[in-house]
Design a protein that fits this description.
Distance between the termini: 22 Å
Strand content: under 5%
GO molecular function: endopeptidase activity; metallopeptidase activity
Shape: globular
Number of domains: 1
Number of helices: 10
Helix content: over 70%
Order of helices and strands: HHEEHHHHHHHHE
InterPro entries: Rce1/LyrA-like_dom
Pfam families: Rce1-like
Number of strands: 3
Protein name: CPBP family intramembrane metalloprotease
GO biological process, one term: proteolysis
Length: 249
Amino acid sequence: MIADGLSLLIDYATYLLPGLGLCALWFCLTPKTQPGLRIVILLFGFVLMRDVMTPLRLWSLSGDAQISFISNPFVLATLGALSLAVVAALARTAPELWKLIIWSRGNRAVGLALGIAAGLAIGVPLRLYQGLDIAEIAGYWPWWLSMAVLAFGGNALEEVLFRGILQGHLEHHTSALRAALISAVAFAACHSFLALTVTRIGWPILLFTLVEGLACSFIRMRYGVNAAIAAHGTAILVIATPMGLVTGG
């Protein structure tokens, strides 16, 4: 499992490196006096990191509400950990953007509970629509634990970028409500390539990500980024399934 996982991760890094390297160079060359452009570069780099996973079969999406991730737990956990490492790196490489992040506001427990509830409200209907019986999926729970690392680690990076840095930046230039709406629409728009070219599934992905983006943006507006991470991570964890489902005998 680990040897196969390392091979897949090396392929991912090799495939990703040229484009991500150019994004990093672009980011470094852009003056700190241009925070808006630097944020756009970060978002572009993230979209590249995410969408490259599709042709390498690290995940897949289908028009019948199926979102499947590779069944190798080592790969999932590593990708989640690497996402958190990128979050930590942002604190050192872009402190002026890091300061824009509002991690928590109001009652933290209420915010996290609301985030989890929102994630369940988004994810459970889709899970029921999938009609899958997890009892028939061999090795589901060990896979699920690693999937949780990716769901919350990977989406922590996404929420830091969209709800933390982008929405935080916008709140300095417009109302909190408008900043939340822009963040949500930008989030959905950044799934356009995934929806229209990478997978060709089209509007279902855009609709789902718009709903998800609106929920996370308004939760962030009231309770901060941590609550938005709880919402996003919960939704993905609920609807995710392992690739190549193996049913028990």
